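Q: What does the assembled structure look like for these inputs?
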Amino acid sequence: MGCTRLAQEVRQDFPVLQRKVNNHPLVYFDNAATTQKPRQVIEALRHYYETYNANVHRGVHTLAAQATEAYEEAHKAVARFVNAPSWREIVFTRNATESLNLVAYAWGLRRLRPGDRVLTTLMEHHSNLVPWQQITRRVGAHLDFADITEDGRLDLDDLFGKLTEQTRVVTLTLASNVLGTVNPVKEIARKAHEVGAIVVVDAAQAAPHMPIDVQDLGVDFLAVSGHKMMGPTGIGFLWGREELLEDMDPFLYGGEMIHEVWPDRATWNELPWKFEAGTPNIAGGIGLQAAVAYLDRIGMDRVEACERELTAYALEKLLAFPGLTLYGPKDTRDRLGVLSFTLEGIHPHDIASILDLHGVAVRSGSHCAQPLMRRLGIEGTARISLYLYNTPEEVDRAVEALQKVREIFR
Amino acid sequence: MADFDIYVEHILDHYKNPRNRGTLENPDLTARDGNPLCGDEIRMDFKVKDGRIVDVKFSGHGCTISQASASILTEMIKGKPLDYVKQLKKDDLLEALGIPIGPTRLKCALLSLKVAKAAVYGLDKVRDEDLE
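A:
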């Protein structure tokens, strides 16, 4: 089946794509912010709440047993999705931000020493930058930044030049939420391990759009948000290597994460529950499993290939548009369908507002990446971000709306 | 174009041909503020004589709504007593803009008023709720 036909078929599963915005059929191009949800995910949430809603790991009654089994199954499905060696390495969190904070606090705060170095990049989302700013400041460690190249890729010479014997953590995004660039994490991880650093990967933007194999990547931690991959909001996960997770103290304390408690001390539950304090987002986990099942049914290789085809089409249209500056790689090599751009003399908010009048939803602003905006010397961009259900016709609709933007500001 | 359009002629005119744009040398009052998330930034300088605004200029950059709003606001307050700025409310400016401002663009529309009030009160920043 061709990609356009696949998109047409997939679209039937997404109720929201049937709606109109400002009297135009919705073109949803804000998938890097959050994706829409298929009926299968919505139905999984409903089924849980309507037939077996109960707390997990506590009751002996039938509903509790069913909820517990489903919640554990969700961990197993996610483990298979990223090819984790063990499902106990999957910790459910609220989102990638919480996953990255977990690593920064539970590993970084306890392990980093004054004078140690943490190496990151200038293309990080604030979620993989600010936690490390805080932790390095608290322990007296240094935070180093790898630069980007003119075509919006990671400057590997700069990165490897800053990788030293003092570097204890290399933390970077697998795919930029602004530039669309996919970073060579496997190669970086190999070199980082040679100097004894651990490698933390923000896969929030990558995991929904390309196959992820944590064993092949050879990294130590990987953070993902469920809502960017067709799952509900409020659920995400952290994958971590078992020996590292075993060796770490918990991040949050309370119920669920403990084994035995005395008035003056406590012992911790086994993985992954040690890192899931309190009643977890059970429905969210079950919804995430449904999202993973949906993507698995299509196959992540296919998701990636079809998105590349659509990205190539969108790139061609945008690069030919007069007065448009595209940030990020100009071809589809090591690139996702995240297309950030500016139009000469027109503020990104105005672009997004006028596109919205034509039913086209795009993001505008700094995309939670202010250091990158400063590096690019701009205040913000408009951003088209694609997903499996988008079509070439929708790209055409967006380009037509961009022409209206130009007419208004002529 | 739909009737809820905010890109109407008078707004685009204020954006393309802003009134009172620039800076003042040795201003009696000045303030600046921005919306870091979208990169809008506005500075406003005042010359004041006998409690009256004898001159006002704004500078900075941002989207159509933030810049047109600043242009319109300077027209509203030039020549008026400082108390007039203190008493101005969010709805007064929105009415003067004359376009429907939804929640997503409210911050853009009100940035200039926050800056003007900050200058007049001699504050670093004015909070959103102080415009109610």
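The mean pLDDT of chain B is 92.
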